[in-house]
From TrEMBL:
The keyword Signal applies. Belongs to the glycosyl hydrolase 26 family. The active site is at E194 (proton donor), E301 (nucleophile). It comes from Adhaeribacter swui. GO terms for molecular function: mannan endo-1,4-beta-mannosidase activity. GO terms for biological process: substituted mannan metabolic process. Coiled coil: none annotated. It holds the Pfam family Glyco_hydro_26. The record marks H193 as: Plays an important role in maintaining the position of the catalytic nucleophile. It comes from the Bacteria. Residues 37-370 form the GH26 domain. Residues 1-25 form the signal peptide. This is Beta-mannosidase. Keywords: Glycosidase, Hydrolase, Signal.
Length: 384
């Protein structure tokens, strides 16, 4: 007699088995005990840097910018300051939901950016605007067409096999990203970001707490333990819909499954209101938790579209990060669109905030790519 197990039963079984197979999280070390030497060194150096500095990052900085696309060794930040950002943001959005040819082209493009950044000594972080694998609508939640995919992807879900195949493609890519030294490029991987909002299909209104945690744990476990991906640092980053630690940790998958805690916050930084003091309190919540749990901390996404405020860099962003003593590994602002005249978050030559951005650049607290020395060696002769 065949017995059909329910999705809820399989989910509960997975969570129990995951708990049984995890060991106590290592404090101040990657959760991957088999992490590559370069990945461990990056983790250690991000912690060391954060004692006195913060790395500045920009999404898609060297891939394209305001009015240009694909120029070699170019970024809008470099055009203004003479240095690329210290952290370059890439996206795994093209790794699924497209034709095999399109996915391969996306992987090649992103691989080159990651390798070039590593070869220059910069740091790579990857977001994942994951197109809904079980319904139309893309990565956004569209009421008329989107399905709550999380419950389909977790163990016991109808699309679990499909999800494993997507992760296998990601794992193959991770094994292929090697610098000129022959070593695998470490990647700060930030999946399922802003999950406390409802705009993405993995957001809070579309998945239970247990379903989201199961998805996170399975993702990490499958990449790390089944696919032997050992060059990822895993970053957890809700949006800004919290004000205390309990709220921040509401969907936290536990310390065994997270390397870095962060926050995406546009609303307090000028999009909805100027509230640097409120933003600072939220950063302190996650920074305090990071120190208590032995994790890295970062301001994983922020920015002010079009940067009309000529003093935003020092009076809002720098003020927010320096209100309290907070060891933040990096801060990343969003992308500069190639075609849009208004969708940009970092200055380019002639943009009104350039003078203030140069003050931000020269502040001893902020580090750019030219400031970095041997981030991938445990012992190095850096400036920190």
């Amino acid at each position: 007699m065949k017995v059909k197990l329910s999705t809820k039963f399989l989910l509960a079984l997975f969570l129990i088995l995951a708990a049984l197979h995890t060991t106590k999280a290592q404090r101040n070390k990657p959760i991957d005990r088999k992490a590559t030497r370069q990945t461990k060194a990056l983790y250690h150096n991000l912690r060391r840097v954060a004692k006195k500095h913060t790395l500045f990052g920009h999404q898609h900085a060297t891939e394209y910018g305001h009015g240009w696309n694909g120029d070699p060794d170019r970024s809008d930040v470099k055009s203004v300051t003479g240095s690329h950002p210290a952290v370059i943001g890439i996206d795994f959005s093209g790794f699924s939901g497209r034709s095999p040819e399109a996915m391969q082209a996306a992987k090649e493009r992103v691989r080159k950016i990651a390798v070039d950044t590593y070869n220059r000594g910069g740091v790579v972080t990857a977001a994942w605007h994951f197109s809904n694998p079980v319904s139309p609508g893309g990565f956004n939640w569209v009421d008329s067409v989107s399905k709550p995919a999380v419950k389909y992807l977790i163990p016991g879900g109808e699309a679990h096999g499909q999800y494993k195949e997507i992760l296998r493609g990601m794992g193959e890519w991770a094994h292929s990203v090697r610098g000129k030294d022959g070593k695998l490029v470490p990647i700060i991987f930030r999946p399922y970001h802003e999950f406390d909002g409802g705009w993405f299909w993995w957001g809070k209104p579309h998945a239970s707490r247990e379903e989201f945690i199961a998805l996170w744990r399975f993702t990490v476990s499958y990449l790390r333990d089944s696919l032997d991906v050992h060059n990822f640092i895993y970053a957890f980053s809700p949006d800004n819909k919290f004000i205390n630690e309990v709220q921040y940790l509401e969907r936290y998958p536990d310390d065994e499954w997270v390397d870095m805690v962060g926050m995406d916050n546009y609303g307090d930084m000028g999009r909805n209101r100027y509230a640097p003091d409120t933003a600072a309190i939220k950063l302190k919540v996650l920074s305090d938790y990071a120190q208590k749990a032995g994790k890295l901390a970062a301001f994983t996404e922020t920015g002010l579209e079009s940067i009309p405020d000529t003093t935003w860099w020092t009076n809002t962003l720098l003020k927010t990060m320096r209100t309290y003593p907070m060891p933040l590994s990096y801060v990343l602002v969003w992308r500069n669109d190639t075609r849009s005249s208004t969708h940009y978050y970092a200055p380019f030559p002639g943009q009104v905030s350039v003078p203030n951005f140069l003050k931000f650049y020269h502040d001893p607290y902020t580090l750019f790519e030219k400031d970095l020395k041997n981030m991938y060696r445990r012992k190095f002769l850096g400036i920190f």
